[in-house]
Automatic annotation (TrEMBL):
Pathway: Cofactor biosynthesis; thiamine diphosphate biosynthesis. It is an enzyme of class 3 (hydrolase). It catalyses: 4-amino-5-aminomethyl-2-methylpyrimidine + H2O = 4-amino-5-hydroxymethyl-2-methylpyrimidine + NH4(+); thiamine + H2O = 5-(2-hydroxyethyl)-4-methylthiazole + 4-amino-5-hydroxymethyl-2-methylpyrimidine + H(+). It comes from Rhodobacter calidifons. InterPro entries: Haem_Oase-like_multi-hlx (IPR016084), Thiaminase-2/PQQC (IPR004305), Thiaminase_II (IPR027574), Thiamine_Salvage_TenA (IPR050967). It comes from the Bacteria. Gene3D superfamilies: Heme oxygenase-like. SUPFAM superfamilies: Heme oxygenase-like (SSF48613). Its EC number is 3.5.99.2. Belongs to the TenA family. This is Aminopyrimidine aminohydrolase.
Amino acid sequence: MSFIETVLQENARLCADIRAMPFNRALADGSLPQAVFQHYIIQDAHYLEGFARALARAAAGAPDAESVAQLAGSGAGAIAVERQLHGHYMALFGVDAQTFAATPPSPACEHYASFLLATAATRGVGEAVAALLPCFWVYRDVGNAIQATASADNPYRAWIDTYAGEDFDAAVTRMCALADRLAEAASPPEQARMRAAFAKSTLLEWMFWDSAWRLGAWPDTAATPPQMKGDPS
Protein backbone atom coordinates (compact mmCIF):
# COMPACT_ATOMS: atom_id res chain seq x y z
CA MET A 1 0.00 0.00 0.00
CA SER A 2 1.03 3.61 -0.49
CA PHE A 3 1.83 5.81 2.49
CA ILE A 4 -1.55 7.54 2.25
CA GLU A 5 -3.44 4.25 2.05
CA THR A 6 -1.51 2.97 5.05
CA VAL A 7 -2.06 5.95 7.35
CA LEU A 8 -5.71 6.25 6.41
CA GLN A 9 -6.24 2.60 7.26
CA GLU A 10 -4.37 3.02 10.55
CA ASN A 11 -6.40 6.11 11.51
CA ALA A 12 -9.76 5.20 9.97
CA ARG A 13 -11.58 4.90 13.29
CA LEU A 14 -10.32 8.25 14.54
CA CYS A 15 -11.31 9.94 11.28
CA ALA A 16 -14.79 8.43 11.61
CA ASP A 17 -14.96 9.67 15.21
CA ILE A 18 -14.10 13.19 14.01
CA ARG A 19 -16.91 13.15 11.45
CA ALA A 20 -19.33 12.09 14.19
CA MET A 21 -18.28 14.68 16.78
CA PRO A 22 -21.03 16.91 18.23
CA PHE A 23 -19.52 20.04 16.69
CA ASN A 24 -19.59 18.55 13.19
CA ARG A 25 -23.06 17.03 13.57
CA ALA A 26 -24.41 20.43 14.65
CA LEU A 27 -22.51 22.14 11.84
CA ALA A 28 -24.13 19.76 9.35
CA ASP A 29 -27.71 20.38 10.47
CA GLY A 30 -27.21 24.10 11.03
CA SER A 31 -27.95 23.94 14.77
CA LEU A 32 -24.44 24.86 15.90
CA PRO A 33 -24.78 27.82 18.30
CA GLN A 34 -23.31 31.01 16.91
CA ALA A 35 -21.23 31.51 20.06
CA VAL A 36 -19.58 28.12 19.51
CA PHE A 37 -18.82 28.86 15.86
CA GLN A 38 -17.57 32.31 16.80
CA HIS A 39 -15.16 30.71 19.26
CA TYR A 40 -14.13 28.18 16.61
CA ILE A 41 -13.29 30.73 13.90
CA ILE A 42 -11.16 32.76 16.30
CA GLN A 43 -9.22 29.65 17.26
CA ASP A 44 -9.01 28.48 13.66
CA ALA A 45 -7.58 31.83 12.61
CA HIS A 46 -4.90 31.51 15.29
CA TYR A 47 -4.20 27.95 14.19
CA LEU A 48 -3.96 28.78 10.49
CA GLU A 49 -1.24 31.33 11.13
CA GLY A 50 0.89 28.64 12.80
CA PHE A 51 -0.08 26.15 10.09
CA ALA A 52 1.06 28.55 7.36
CA ARG A 53 4.35 29.16 9.15
CA ALA A 54 4.92 25.40 9.42
CA LEU A 55 4.23 24.99 5.70
CA ALA A 56 6.76 27.72 4.95
CA ARG A 57 9.39 25.98 7.11
CA ALA A 58 8.68 22.67 5.39
CA ALA A 59 9.03 24.37 2.00
CA ALA A 60 12.55 25.46 2.91
CA GLY A 61 13.57 21.80 3.25
CA ALA A 62 11.68 20.46 0.24
CA PRO A 63 13.74 18.31 -2.15
CA ASP A 64 12.89 20.09 -5.42
CA ALA A 65 11.51 23.32 -6.82
CA GLU A 66 8.08 21.81 -7.47
CA SER A 67 7.72 20.77 -3.84
CA VAL A 68 8.97 24.15 -2.61
CA ALA A 69 6.34 25.90 -4.74
CA GLN A 70 3.59 23.55 -3.60
CA LEU A 71 4.28 23.91 0.13
CA ALA A 72 4.84 27.65 -0.05
CA GLY A 73 1.67 28.03 -2.11
CA SER A 74 -0.31 26.01 0.43
CA GLY A 75 0.94 28.33 3.17
CA ALA A 76 -0.19 31.37 1.20
CA GLY A 77 -3.52 29.63 0.59
CA ALA A 78 -4.03 29.07 4.33
CA ILE A 79 -3.61 32.78 4.96
CA ALA A 80 -6.01 33.57 2.12
CA VAL A 81 -8.66 31.28 3.65
CA GLU A 82 -8.17 32.92 7.03
CA ARG A 83 -8.65 36.39 5.57
CA GLN A 84 -11.59 35.56 3.31
CA LEU A 85 -13.65 32.86 5.02
CA HIS A 86 -12.96 33.88 8.59
CA GLY A 87 -13.29 37.54 7.67
CA HIS A 88 -16.78 36.78 6.37
CA TYR A 89 -17.90 35.01 9.53
CA MET A 90 -16.15 37.34 11.93
CA ALA A 91 -17.96 40.26 10.35
CA LEU A 92 -21.24 38.32 10.36
CA PHE A 93 -20.92 37.41 14.04
CA GLY A 94 -19.46 40.72 15.19
CA VAL A 95 -15.91 39.61 15.95
CA ASP A 96 -13.84 42.77 15.61
CA ALA A 97 -10.05 43.08 15.60
CA GLN A 98 -9.99 43.96 19.30
CA THR A 99 -11.97 40.85 20.27
CA PHE A 100 -9.74 38.63 18.19
CA ALA A 101 -6.55 40.17 19.60
CA ALA A 102 -7.85 39.77 23.14
CA THR A 103 -8.64 36.06 22.67
CA PRO A 104 -5.50 33.93 22.95
CA PRO A 105 -5.09 30.53 21.31
CA SER A 106 -6.73 27.80 23.37
CA PRO A 107 -4.58 25.03 24.87
CA ALA A 108 -5.63 22.65 22.08
CA CYS A 109 -4.92 25.24 19.39
CA GLU A 110 -1.54 26.18 20.83
CA HIS A 111 -0.52 22.56 21.29
CA TYR A 112 -1.42 21.65 17.70
CA ALA A 113 0.26 24.67 16.10
CA SER A 114 3.35 24.27 18.27
CA PHE A 115 3.65 20.60 17.31
CA LEU A 116 3.51 21.48 13.60
CA LEU A 117 6.06 24.26 13.95
CA ALA A 118 8.43 22.12 16.01
CA THR A 119 8.17 19.22 13.57
CA ALA A 120 8.78 21.45 10.55
CA ALA A 121 11.74 23.13 12.27
CA THR A 122 13.50 20.10 13.69
CA ARG A 123 12.51 17.09 11.59
CA GLY A 124 12.89 16.07 7.96
CA VAL A 125 10.54 17.34 5.29
CA GLY A 126 8.78 13.96 5.02
CA GLU A 127 7.88 14.00 8.68
CA ALA A 128 6.80 17.64 8.46
CA VAL A 129 4.52 16.97 5.50
CA ALA A 130 3.03 13.93 7.26
CA ALA A 131 2.27 16.10 10.31
CA LEU A 132 0.67 18.80 8.14
CA LEU A 133 -1.39 16.40 6.04
CA PRO A 134 -4.25 15.59 8.49
CA CYS A 135 -5.40 19.21 8.45
CA PHE A 136 -5.91 18.88 4.70
CA TRP A 137 -7.39 15.38 4.79
CA VAL A 138 -9.68 15.78 7.79
CA TYR A 139 -11.17 19.07 6.59
CA ARG A 140 -11.96 17.61 3.18
CA ASP A 141 -13.37 14.49 4.83
CA VAL A 142 -15.58 16.52 7.17
CA GLY A 143 -16.56 19.01 4.48
CA ASN A 144 -17.69 16.27 2.09
CA ALA A 145 -19.60 14.44 4.82
CA ILE A 146 -21.41 17.60 5.88
CA GLN A 147 -22.21 18.69 2.34
CA ALA A 148 -24.01 15.39 1.75
CA THR A 149 -26.65 16.28 4.36
CA ALA A 150 -26.57 20.07 4.81
CA SER A 151 -29.49 22.13 3.57
CA ALA A 152 -29.04 24.94 1.07
CA ASP A 153 -29.87 27.55 3.71
CA ASN A 154 -27.45 26.20 6.31
CA PRO A 155 -25.97 29.28 8.05
CA TYR A 156 -22.51 27.79 7.69
CA ARG A 157 -22.84 27.14 3.96
CA ALA A 158 -19.75 29.24 3.07
CA TRP A 159 -17.61 27.07 5.35
CA ILE A 160 -19.10 23.87 3.94
CA ASP A 161 -18.63 24.95 0.33
CA THR A 162 -15.00 25.91 0.94
CA TYR A 163 -13.92 22.54 2.32
CA ALA A 164 -16.12 20.46 0.02
CA GLY A 165 -15.12 22.50 -3.02
CA GLU A 166 -13.07 21.53 -6.05
CA ASP A 167 -10.17 23.89 -5.27
CA PHE A 168 -9.64 22.45 -1.81
CA ASP A 169 -10.08 18.92 -3.11
CA ALA A 170 -7.28 19.53 -5.62
CA ALA A 171 -5.01 20.95 -2.90
CA VAL A 172 -5.57 17.88 -0.71
CA THR A 173 -4.88 15.53 -3.61
CA ARG A 174 -1.59 17.32 -4.37
CA MET A 175 -0.54 17.15 -0.70
CA CYS A 176 -1.30 13.42 -0.57
CA ALA A 177 0.76 12.85 -3.70
CA LEU A 178 3.68 14.78 -2.20
CA ALA A 179 3.50 12.71 1.00
CA ASP A 180 3.54 9.51 -1.07
CA ARG A 181 6.59 10.67 -3.04
CA LEU A 182 8.48 11.60 0.11
CA ALA A 183 7.58 8.31 1.78
CA GLU A 184 8.79 6.32 -1.22
CA ALA A 185 12.20 7.99 -0.94
CA ALA A 186 12.38 7.58 2.85
CA SER A 187 14.08 4.84 4.83
CA PRO A 188 11.92 2.45 6.90
CA PRO A 189 12.68 4.37 10.15
CA GLU A 190 11.77 7.64 8.42
CA GLN A 191 8.54 6.11 7.13
CA ALA A 192 7.68 5.02 10.66
CA ARG A 193 8.23 8.56 11.94
CA MET A 194 6.04 9.90 9.15
CA ARG A 195 3.25 7.52 10.15
CA ALA A 196 3.60 8.54 13.81
CA ALA A 197 3.47 12.24 12.86
CA PHE A 198 0.31 11.71 10.82
CA ALA A 199 -1.33 9.81 13.68
CA LYS A 200 -0.45 12.49 16.24
CA SER A 201 -1.78 15.32 14.08
CA THR A 202 -4.99 13.38 13.45
CA LEU A 203 -5.45 13.07 17.20
CA LEU A 204 -4.74 16.79 17.57
CA GLU A 205 -7.44 17.44 14.96
CA TRP A 206 -9.87 15.55 17.20
CA MET A 207 -8.71 17.59 20.20
CA PHE A 208 -9.15 20.86 18.30
CA TRP A 209 -12.76 20.03 17.32
CA ASP A 210 -13.53 18.84 20.84
CA SER A 211 -12.08 22.03 22.33
CA ALA A 212 -14.12 24.14 19.92
CA TRP A 213 -17.33 22.40 21.02
CA ARG A 214 -16.50 22.88 24.70
CA LEU A 215 -15.33 26.50 24.21
CA GLY A 216 -11.94 25.42 25.49
CA ALA A 217 -9.78 28.14 27.01
CA TRP A 218 -6.99 28.65 29.51
CA PRO A 219 -8.13 28.90 33.15
CA ASP A 220 -8.60 32.40 34.51
CA THR A 221 -5.94 32.23 37.20
CA ALA A 222 -6.59 35.83 38.24
CA ALA A 223 -10.16 34.95 39.19
CA THR A 224 -9.65 31.43 40.59
CA PRO A 225 -6.04 30.28 41.00
CA PRO A 226 -5.70 26.62 39.99
CA GLN A 227 -5.22 24.26 42.90
CA MET A 228 -1.72 22.79 42.86
CA LYS A 229 -0.95 19.18 43.70
CA GLY A 230 -0.41 18.92 47.43
CA ASP A 231 -2.18 22.22 48.15
CA PRO A 232 -4.07 21.65 51.43
CA SER A 233 -6.73 24.27 50.61
